[in-house]
Amino acid sequence: MSKESVTEDSDSLCVLILAPTPKDNEFCVQVLEDARIKTRVCTSLKGLCEQVNQGNAAVALIAEEYLKADQNGLIPDLLSNQPAWSDLPIVVLLIAGEHASPSLNRLQELGNITLIRRPVRIAVFINTIRANLRDRQRQYSVRNLLKERNDVNQNLEIQQRRFSLALKAGGMAAWELQNEKLYWSDAIYDLLGLPRGEPVTLERFYSVIHPEDLPKLQDVWEASVRKRQSFEEEFRILYAGKEQRWMELMGESVEWELGNPGHFAGLFWDITAEKVQEKREQRAAEIERFLSEATMTLAASLDFETTLESVTSLCVPTLGDWAILELISDDHTIRRMKIAHADPAASPLADQLMQTISNPQMQQHSSPHLFGNETIFVENMTEELLREVVPTSEQLPALRELGAQSLIVVALGIRDQQFGVLTLIQTNAASRHKTSDFKTAEELARRASIAIDNARLYKIGQQASAAKSEFVANMSHEIRTPMTAVLGYADLLAGSENDPVKLKHLRMIQKNGSFLLDIINDILDLSKIEAGKMECVTERFAANELIADVYSMMQVRAVEKKLDFSVEYATTIPSQIESDPKRLKQILVNLVGNAVKFTTEGSIRLVISYVTSGESPVIQFDVIDTGIGITEAQLSQLFQDFSQGDTSVTRAFGGTGLGLAISARLARMLGGSIEVTSQPGSGTTFTCKISAGLVDSAPLIHPVKKHNTTTETPESQETQPALSCNVLVVDDRRDIRYLVKQFLIKSGAEVESVNDGLEAIERVERGQNSFDMILLDMQMPRLDGYQTAERLRSLGFKRPIIALTADAMHGDMNRCLASGCDAFLSKPINTKELIEIVARYTQ
């Protein structure tokens, strides 16, 4: 029968009519239609069968004549092939006489057939049809129930199939706990590595859990079952009793209807791959963080020894329990070695290893082939591999005692030049090196190589700088000492000479000697700045007084060249500022001196202003001249060392070209800058800005403008103070002793002199302690001035000691004071300064 569904609505039920004659068909249709029963007339047995197959039949009304003519048994075959739920009601209109035909007999055997004799009584006919319709309607209800159940079963089967496929695809096992009995899907055997068919009870399940994770899992399981709460837990198992794997177990309570307790059910699956990936990502993040921190650590210092120690300490414990760094000479002998280890108790072994490997009798490195840019990676160290790596039997015991489980050796080098190796050793079998560690070690070695090479180059540079500084200091000392005699004797002669021509010659010696001294001072200042030894001492002082000093010094030079020189205040300024007055004066003298040098006629103006518009207040100095000006090309080189724009300027005006370079650096040290604007032939303006410091409490003042005229003459020299004291001069140079003695005697002092510090100490020890002051040269043979001062103080000499030094490079000023001197004078000795300092300390 067709599987096309037939509606359950009684209005759609249809009686198929196959009566003996058309008139009989009309009669049956009329009777049934009057009884509100739907009908459909068929004209042949075949047509009736087609209607049945199409699902249009609720009851079949057939005249016996057609059954007798059914030689092929169409109707019985049709009924025997009905679905299980269907039993089509058949009503047969019998003819008079015997009723023997094969089809009728077979229908009676199949059952569900009703016979009506003719002539038909209408009431019986209608009731019979209705009774069969009710039977058919019940069949439809059963059919629908069966279909619904079948659909449910099919859906369950599909869902079960999909669930099974999902579990299989996800590598999951399903489980149920019902009535304290645990059920698993078959996938559990593959997940746990157990033989198929073995009962997997809760106790058996617990037996494969990693011992460290079992207590927590048991607590979670029991609490969840007891409280009927959902749970998810990650833990490790020992797969097949050996391999460690990560698993996840989840479960939830399943309740039946009406709140009755049902059972627990859930899933179980392998998360080892996720854990491995998670660990890999964590490791990658750790390595990235490690390399970043390593780069910052290595860049934090340029000290060679600190850098070597940083390399090894960085490796432990991230890349190994031991790290050995060896710097190797071209002949593969070890020239430097550093060792770091994670275990403090391993220090004795580290010392033994250091002594063994660095033994001069076995300096051949174990891996000379590294100089072919190769590396070593031993994931699983064996005795045989250890013997291959270690070249001598003397080194084996110490290295064997390390208990190396894995080893990485990477080359250290840069620019295709290898200069060492870095060896990383893991002593824990569970932490053997992996390929990722090897790659990390190579990257660290690359960064470490750069850091070590930078430290090496810095060390070389420092040594070169120290050598240069030492050379400049020695040069300064060797020039300053004879310059003391040159300028000093010129002063002595000038003081007693009346011949104008000879006096002019002496003044020329003094002028050029001072010029040579300025050059020496410039070179010393530049060397100090480059060596980082130039210091700024911040103090509070009156800027207007410092500017007045600068004016007093420089207006003499301006008058000599018949230039107008003025000081102007564009704004009020603080009565006091915070800066280094010595360095500020040096800058202003350089800038004004430069303007005087390059201006042949016209004027020079020093304009001062106080600027508060920026982040912090500054003092601005504008030095404006009407000199030769500076071209664009010259401006770009102006603040470079030993540069004056071009060589023609140097030849024409003289100088080293260091003044502006030094001034610019000093301005930066004072928190400011120097800028320049110029027009060739129209003059130049240098603008110097320095930080004013904390000046909130200082009142603003407007100092008086200063201006000279080209007819002014230099101020006469101040009268030097008269001395009344007894001075001991200690110097190994006879000419210097004589010169200083003459200056002091001329000013009224009594003077004695000795050749060196030992003689000075002998004088004091013999009780000849009548000296009011000692002038002490600091660079003497046998016993230098520093040692002499310390010895004198230890003997109880408490009167002033003034140091005389030609070494202005090494910061010996502080050293002089620390050794016991009260003050110092730099050579060549300025007569005025000498007399003033002696007067100050003795009167």
TrEMBL record:
InterPro entries: CheY-like_superfamily (IPR011006), GAF-like_dom_sf (IPR029016), HATPase_C_sf (IPR036890), HATPase_dom (IPR003594), His_kinase_dom (IPR005467), HisK_dim/P_dom (IPR003661), HisK_dim/P_sf (IPR036097), PAS (IPR000014). Pfam families: HATPase_c, HisKA, PAS_3, Response_reg. Residues 182-228 form the PAS domain. It is an enzyme of class 2 (transferase). Its EC number is 2.7.13.3. The modification 4-aspartylphosphate is found at D777. Residues 474-694 form the Histidine kinase domain. It catalyses: ATP + protein L-histidine = ADP + protein N-phospho-L-histidine. One of its GO terms (molecular function) is phosphorelay sensor kinase activity. Residues 726-842 form the Response regulatory domain. PROSITE patterns: HIS_KIN (PS50109), PAS (PS50112), RESPONSE_REGULATORY (PS50110). The keyword Phosphoprotein applies. Gene3D superfamilies: 1.10.287.130, 3.30.450.40, 3.40.50.2300, Histidine kinase-like ATPase, C-terminal domain (3.30.565.10), PAS domain (3.30.450.20). SMART domains: HATPase_c, HisKA, PAS, REC. It comes from the Bacteria. Keywords: Kinase, Phosphoprotein, Transferase, Two-component regulatory system. The keyword Zinc does not apply. CDD domains: HATPase_EvgS-ArcB-TorS-like (cd16922), HisKA (cd00082), PAS (cd00130), REC_hyHK_CKI1_RcsC-like (cd17546). PANTHER family: HYBRID SIGNAL TRANSDUCTION HISTIDINE KINASE J (PTHR45339:SF1). This is histidine kinase. It comes from Gimesia algae.
